[in-house]
Write a structure and sequence with these properties.
150 residues; three-stranded parallel beta sheet; alpha/beta; 4 helices; single chain; metal-binding; 14% strand; 2 domains; Sulfite Reductase Hemoprotein, domain 1; Alpha-Beta Plaits; oxidoreductase activity
Length: 150
């Protein structure tokens, strides 16, 4: 905390000079006023049972393109962007100016040989909101394994 605005203005060049070895800012200054605020997004594959995308990559790509508007106050008003990872829209897309929504375009590929070892199959079946995932037994190399069909 600083006591005067002059002391604050003295800190700005110091913060702007702090960069990672690759050249990106450690402490970017912006996001308030008539500019782009931080992008609101959900956690995707980390916490959700039904994600269509992982938000980290698209959010980083969008923010890299919009970064100049994050620091400048050249927009008519504050611009809010959100990215929910699926159609449940936990990322407040309905409250944002721009919403980028992850959707499934085709069923995911099922790796039958790995599924039973890395996934609780009943949990995967119960997590599908449309009931499209069904239990199945698949034969791989002469051995029957638990899997699912979509």
């Amino acid at each position: 905390m600083v006591e005067t605005e002059d002391a604050l203005k003295g800190l700005l060049p110091d913060l702007e000079s702090r960069k990672f070895p690759g050249g990106s800012n450690k402490f970017p200054i912006g996001g308030t006023g008539a500019c782009v605020s931080n992008i609101v997004h959900t956690q995707g594959y980390v916490h959700c049972h039904t994600p269509a995308t992982d938000a980290s990559g698209p959010v980083k790509a969008v923010m890299a393109e919009m970064f100049e508007y994050f620091q400048s106050m050249t927009l008519p008003a504050l611009l809010r962007i959100s990215l929910p990872c699926c159609l449940n829209m936990c990322g407040a897309v309905q409250c944002s100016d721009i919403g980028i929504v992850g959707i499934h375009r085709k069923p995911p590929i099922v790796e039958h040989d790995r599924l039973d070892n890395i996934c609780e199959i009943p949990l995967a079946i119960s997590a599908c909101p449309t009931g499209a995932i069904k239990p199945a037994k698949v034969e791989i190399d002469g051995k029957k394994v638990n899997s699912v069909t979509v």
